[in-house]
């Protein structure tokens, strides 16, 4: 745009804006994004004044990857439809996996129960009432073998949502593959293994930050040599968002966590290009449609720029922000649950327009329970309809060039950099977490959002408007039989009797020795797994050396 | 001067979903109650001990993990064992209706669903103490 053209446009815009003054406009709901970015009624070239196509967007598959990480995007391959699932015993979940694969799912994603997420065995006193309830119980290699029984691990990619005890659960998986005759180098999948967001949001931490980061670098180093197709960390904004953050906070804290892992790897002396290509991301897709799309686009651009300029990555793969998306669990309502199908469909569309590599769509009943088979099938069908019926896969980044979307992408990026600066001033993410900074920012945003709903500044259908009086829940819920806990505990106790306990003791002792040295812990953990040491035993051995993390309670 | 109503917001079990607990704790504080928050990963023993030590009037338990049928009865049992049945227990989270009925019969106070307004909880607490006095 020439200077003259711009002046002309500005003049015309002012004339147009003048006309708005006399027209009625509602004052509610809020005309702000969920991140509280105030919005104009319309966007024009004036809002992206310095726009430079090649610098800001580039072509798909080309730096800075704003439009997508692949040249062909969904024409080359549809995103992976990956439904997070796990409940009850390993047998129950194995059955659900086979059901999903039979109906066209293309990747597996394991949800573990709370005891497992915290490195506790199913017979731990703290596990009472929680075994197999929020996910599947995996206390040893034995459970993992059952979980993947009849599923050839060289043919599926498996994502595992596991963080505190990621190294141990991954070791169970690796040995399961070995027993199936599948070599490590053929395995594809992801362990979440993002401990920083645990301290920030999801709170399934075990050890303090420093030893946790050491284990993560051990995993990155081990994988780059032995399991080269494995995604070693899924740097996650999802849980940050679920805890109540804004889109800006999700973007900023997640990328900052990512930078921290990169810096830790470099500090160990690893070449950034050996591990960066295996870092992947995981974002939330919430209700604010355009803000979400802008968030995904901004994330790709920032990551590529920082990896190249700040961390000196040379390989193209190191610059790519590959990501999984899950629709926002926290946006599901307990009221009129069928409405959640519609919410999820819009959120899924935002993820696809934002260029996601894989997607989980929530089921309508998930504000109440883990999804029933019927509900999860509708959720999967939502993705298939999007992929095969709507035509949105035909053209890459179809919103690229929209004045509004480009403005919002720039704005989110700018706000994210503001957070980066603040956190760097605090001495980096680990220090910021210890000071409770991201935790407080999120709690503040969650409270603001709740107040906006209570004051009806934001309308949630069925919750604060369009309410059904005396609503009765009419969808069937999945219930976990308390027998699950008994059966699981029984199996674990049988294992403890049948395995070679002398070898177990020896392996655990070797692990503790390794933990005190600088040795890569993956090797001794694999040996523990092979000997059928349990998750709790291995975790406790490491706790003896590393201690436990406790967070300060505040609200 | 009348003593402020004192409430312990408790987060039992292994569940880390503390968004609701924190939002409610803050909302109740802003509504004029005295609020203590336990933090995460509390056992029923820890919750009951804190409640007695802090001399609270009510315990509000936030639970989204599905372990409610284990946690609530245990908290009630411990309160009875320690002679502290004057402390009223209520809660919120993901609790299906049929479980709610069972827990109400055991003597648990109101169980709030996701999507509840803080003002409804405030009203419930005020009514509870109005009825008592």
Structural commentary:
The complex is a heterodimer of chains A (555) and B (133). Chain A is of the alpha/beta class and 555 residues long. Chain A has a domain of 348 residues: Methylmalonyl-CoA mutase (TIM Barrel), CATH 3.20.20.240. Chain A contains 23 helices and 10 strands. In chain A, the strands form 2 sheets. A 5-stranded parallel sheet of chain A has the order 1-10-9-8-7. In chain A, helix 11 runs parallel beside helix 13, helix 13 packs across helix 17 and helix 15 crosses helix 16. Chain B has 5 helices and 5 strands. Chain B has a 5-stranded parallel sheet with strand order 2-1-3-4-5, sandwiched between helices. At the A-B interface, helix 5 and helix 19 of A face helix 1 and helix 3 of B. Chain A: It comes from candidate division WOR-3 bacterium.
Salient structural properties:
heterodimer; A: 555 residues; alpha/beta; TIM Barrel; 5-stranded parallel β-sheet; B: 133 residues; Rossmann fold; Cbl-dep_enz_cat (chain A); methylmalonyl-CoA mutase activity (chain A); isomerase (chain A)
Strand and helix map with partners:
The complex is a heterodimer of chains A (555) and B (133).
Chain A: H1 3-20, H2 53-57, H3 73-76, E1 80-81, E2 84-85, H4 90-102, E3 108-110, H5 114-117, H6 141-147, E4 157-160, H7 166-180, E5 188-191, H8 196-202, H9 209-226, E6 230-231, E7 233-236, H10 238-242, H11 247-267, H12 272-275, E8 279-285, H13 289-309, H14 316-319, E9 323-327, H15 339-353, E10 358-360, H16 373-388, H17 403-425, H18 429-434, H19 437-454, H20 483-498, H21 501-516, H22 522-530, H23 535-546
Parallel strand pairs in A: 1-10, 2-3, 3-4, 4-5, 5-6, 7-8, 8-9, 9-10
Helix pairs in contact in A: 4-6, 6-7, 7-22, 11-13, 11-17, 13-15, 13-17, 15-16, 21-22, 21-23
Chain B: E1 6-10, H1 19-30, E2 34-37, H2 44-53, E3 58-63, H3 68-81, E4 88-93, H4 97-106, E5 111-112, H5 118-132
Helix pairs in contact in B: 2-3
């Amino acid at each position: 745009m020439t200077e003259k053209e711009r002046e002309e446009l500005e003049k015309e815009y002012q004339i147009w804006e003048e006309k708005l003054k006399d027209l009625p406009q509602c004052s509610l709901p809020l005309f702000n994004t969920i991140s509280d970015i105030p919005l104009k009624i319309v966007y024009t070239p004036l809002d992206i004044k310095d726009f430079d196509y090649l610098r800001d967007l580039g072509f798909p598959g080309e730096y800075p990857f704003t439009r997508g990480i692949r040249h062909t995007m969904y024409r080359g391959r549809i995103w992976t439809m990956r439904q997070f699932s796990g409940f009850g015993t390993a047998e129950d979940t194995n059955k659900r996996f086979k059901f999903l694969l039979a109906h066209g799912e293309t990747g597996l994603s394991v949800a573990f129960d709370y005891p497992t997420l915290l490195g506790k065995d199913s017979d731990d006193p703290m596990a009472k009432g929680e075994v197999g309830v929020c996910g599947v119980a995996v206390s040893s290699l034995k459970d993992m073998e059952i979980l993947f029984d009849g599923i050839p691990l060289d043919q599926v990619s498996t994502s595992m949502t596991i963080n505190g005890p990621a190294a141990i659960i991954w070791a169970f998986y690796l040995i399961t593959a070995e027993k199936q005759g599948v070599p490590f180098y053929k395995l594809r999948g992801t362990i979440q293994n993002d401990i920083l967001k645990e301290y920030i949001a999801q709170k399934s931490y075990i050890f303090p930050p420093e030893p946790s980061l050491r284990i993560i670098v051990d995993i990155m180093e081990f994988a780059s040599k032995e399991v080269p197709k494995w995604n070693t960390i899924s740097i996650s904004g999802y849980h940050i968002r679920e805890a109540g953050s804004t889109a800006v906070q999700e973007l900023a804290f997640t990328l900052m966590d990512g930078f921290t892992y990169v810096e830790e790897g470099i500090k160990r002396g690893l070449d950034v290009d050996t591990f960066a290509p295996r870092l992947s991301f995981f974002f939330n897709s919430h209700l604010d449609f355009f803000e979400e799309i802008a968030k995904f686009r901004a994330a790709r651009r920032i990551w590529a720029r920082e990896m190249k300029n700040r961390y000196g990555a040379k390989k193209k793969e190191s610059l790519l922000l590959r990501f999984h998306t899950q629709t926002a669990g926290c946006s599901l309502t307990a009221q009129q649950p069928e409405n959640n199908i519609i919410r999820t469909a819009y959120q899924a569309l935002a993820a696809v327009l934002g260029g996601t590599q894989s997607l989980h769509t929530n089921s309508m009943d998930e504000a109440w329970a883990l999804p029933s088979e019927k509900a999860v099938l509708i959720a999967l069908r939502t993705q298939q309809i999007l992929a095969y019926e709507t035509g949105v896969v035909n053209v890459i980044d179809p919103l690229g060039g929209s004045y509004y979307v480009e403005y919002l992408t720039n704005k989110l990026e700018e706000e994210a950099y503001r957070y980066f600066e603040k956190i760097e001033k605090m001495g980096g993410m680990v220090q910021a977490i210890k000071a409770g900074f991201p935790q407080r920012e999120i709690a503040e945003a969650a409270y603001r959002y709740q107040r906006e709903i209570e004051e009806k500044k934001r309308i949630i259908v069925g919750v604060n408007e369009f309410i059904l009086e005396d609503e009765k829940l009419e969808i069937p819920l999945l219930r976990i039989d308390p027998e699950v806990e008994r059966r699981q505990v029984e199996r674990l106790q049988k294992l403890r009797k049948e395995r070679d306990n002398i070898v177990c003791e020896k392996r655990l002792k070797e692990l503790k020795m390794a933990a005190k040295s600088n040795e890569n812990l993956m090797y001794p953990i694999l040996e523990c797994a092979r000997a059928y040491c349990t998750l709790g035993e291995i975790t406790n051995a490491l706790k003896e050396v590393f201690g436990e993390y406790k967070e300060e309670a505040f609200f | 001067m009348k003593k402020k109503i004192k409430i312990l917001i408790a987060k039992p079990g292994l569940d880390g979903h503390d968004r609701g607990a924190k939002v409610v704790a803050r909302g109740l504080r802003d509504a004029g109650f005295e609020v203590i928050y336990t933090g995460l990963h509390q056992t029923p023993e820890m919750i009951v001990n804190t409640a007695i030590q802090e001399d609270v009037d009510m315990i509000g338990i936030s639970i989204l993990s599905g372990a409610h049928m284990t946690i609530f009865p245990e908290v009630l049992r411990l309160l009875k064992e320690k002679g502290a049945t004057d402390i009223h227990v209520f809660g919120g989270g993901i609790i299906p209706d049929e479980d709610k009925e069972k827990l109400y019969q055991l003597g648990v106070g109101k169980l709030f669903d996701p999507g509840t307004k803080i003002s409804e909880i405030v009203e419930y607490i005020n009514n509870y103490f109005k009825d008592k006095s």
